[in-house]
């Protein structure tokens, strides 16, 4: 086998995998801000963090996500383990992984669990706006709660998060998939209906007609939209209990001021849903307008070998949410330090660096000026960098100040240019005055 490794000259430049993106400053500040908002909100709703492996057995998604879903049929990154041949997959979603962990560790033995996660997922598809091969998902899973009030609560959690992020123009659509017997009756009606119009079905629809006809309702093929709109609706097959479940969810949302509409074509793309399904949608991101989607999946535990367990949850595409946030807001979320240390020469570092460490220990965010190998640079150039950093104060460690055991604290943001001397032996007394961050 030929070795194409360069042996001389400049090494070839490597690039990242298409559809798997670097998140760089200052954009990463928006991600951190979002993650902080999420963690704070989850705590208020009593949801606790769970972290599952990125790699799971392929069978987990074949059984849990559904054999006939696009994810399993077309999009999974699957491979055989080199050591033992085990079939493994980079997780394309995380609900099956959370349920697998709950079964394996018997998480619900002492009652229901409210869980959330944030992390990367992987789907092998053509990268486009809002759809990436490595994408990040926020999700919640409420395990062991059978009542419609939990369906409403997880939806209210999304609504509250979007409110606190400041997002606008997001609508809520919901539907009910009922219970298995109701879906079976609807399934039979769908098959009969689509068989009468077989000449109008595309290749995917014909393939799914008998395997999973509900998925045909989720088609994006423009040529099939009229056909799908006229198809039998599952809502017409719901029994009294399923109707009460949906009406309770609707009533709780209304009581909390959340507007909603019923979309009878909303079926979601995964096989494990029952009762409530929902999506939070925007029209400002083109074709990739679904920001968050989820629903109840009471049958998944048994499907994966566990005991019957009620469950409801959702998944949210973080990139899409941040893209919408960025388009609607111009707020600069890049964190600025409280202070920037202006340092005259390398000889003073032995005194300055311990002072900066003491300030950081006191809760002050300090950016230290660092040299480039040719000295520390002039005071003028350092002050330019101090101003560009966004710091509220400059700490000037001049030779005269250091000789007296002092530092000059100069204001950079209020227009006054005011400055004062502070004693290096009394950091605890003046450090709080530098903390300008909210």
TrEMBL record:
Keyword Phosphoprotein: no
Binding site for L-histidine: 93-95, 123, 137, 141, 268, 272-273
BP-aspect Gene Ontology terms: histidyl-tRNA aminoacylation
Enzyme class, first EC level, given as a word: ligase
A single cellular component GO annotation: cytoplasm
InterPro entries xrefs: aa-tRNA-synth_II, aa-tRNA-synth_II/BPL/LPL, Anticodon-bd, Anticodon-bd_dom_sf, His-tRNA-ligase, HisRS-like_core, HisRS/HisZ
Keyword annotations of the record: Aminoacyl-tRNA synthetase, ATP-binding, Cytoplasm, Ligase, Nucleotide-binding, Protein biosynthesis
GO-annotated molecular function: ATP binding; histidine-tRNA ligase activity
Pfam families: HGTP_anticodon, tRNA-synt_His
EC number assigned by the record: 6.1.1.21
Subcellular location, record wording: Cytoplasm
Family, per entry: Belongs to the class-II aminoacyl-tRNA synthetase family.
Subunit structure: Homodimer.
PANTHER family: HISTIDINE--TRNA LIGASE, MITOCHONDRIAL-RELATED, HISTIDYL-TRNA SYNTHETASE
Protein name: Histidine--tRNA ligase
Source organism of the structure: Xylophilus rhododendri
Gene that produces this protein: hisS
């Amino acid at each position: 086998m030929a070795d194409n490794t360069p042996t001389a000259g400049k090494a070839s430049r490597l690039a990242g995998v298409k559809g798997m993106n670097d998140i760089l400053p200052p954009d990463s500040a928006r991600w951190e801000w979002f993650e902080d908002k999420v963690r704070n909100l989850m705590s208020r709703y009593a949801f606790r963090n769970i972290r599952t492996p990125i790699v799971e057995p392929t069978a987990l998604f074949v059984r849990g996500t559904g054999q006939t879903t696009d994810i399993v049929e077309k999009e999974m990154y699957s491979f055989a383990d080199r050591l033992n041949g085990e079939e493994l997959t980079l997780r394309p979603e995380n609900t099956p992984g959370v349920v697998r962990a709950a079964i394996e560790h018997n998480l619900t033995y002492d009652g229901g669990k409210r869980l959330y996660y944030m992390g990367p997922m992987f789907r092998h598809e053509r990268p486009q706006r809002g759809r990436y091969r490595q994408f990040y998902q926020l999700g919640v899973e409420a395990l062991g709660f059978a009542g419609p009030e939990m369906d409403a609560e997880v939806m209210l959690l999304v609504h509250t998060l979007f409110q606190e992020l400041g997002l606008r123009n997001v609508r809520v659509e919901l539907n009910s998939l009922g219970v298995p017997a109701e879906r079976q009756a609807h399934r039979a009606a769908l098959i009969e209906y689509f068989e009468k119009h077989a000449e109008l079905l595309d290749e995917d629809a014909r393939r799914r007609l008998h395997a999973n006809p509900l998925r045909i309702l989720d088609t994006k093929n423009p040529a099939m939209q009229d056909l799908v709109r006229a198809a039998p609706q599952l809502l017409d097959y719901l029994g009294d209990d399923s109707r009460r479940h949906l009406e309770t969810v609707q009533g709780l949302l209304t009581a909390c001021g959340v507007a909603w509409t019923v979309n009878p074509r909303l079926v979601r793309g995964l096989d494990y849903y029952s009762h409530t399904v929902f999506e939070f949608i925007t029209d400002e991101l083109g074709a990739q307008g679904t920001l968050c989607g989820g629903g109840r999946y009471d049958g998944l535990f048994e499907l994966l070998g566990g005991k019957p367990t009620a469950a409801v949850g959702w998944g949210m595409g973080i990139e899409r949410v941040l893209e919408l946030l960025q388009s609607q807001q111009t707020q600069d979320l890049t964190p600025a330090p409280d202070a920037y240390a202006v340092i005259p020469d390398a000889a003073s570092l032995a005194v300055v660096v311990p002072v900066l460490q003491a300030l950081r220990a006191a809760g002050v965010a300090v950016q230290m000026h660092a040299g480039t190998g040719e000295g520390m640079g002039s005071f003028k150039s350092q002050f330019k960098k101090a101003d560009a950093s966004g710091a509220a104060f400059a700490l000037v460690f001049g030779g005269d100040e250091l000789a007296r055991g002092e530092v000059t604290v100069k204001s950079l943001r209020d227009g006054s240019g005011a400055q004062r001397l502070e004693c290096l032996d009394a950091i605890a007394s003046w450090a709080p005055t530098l903390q300008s961050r909210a």
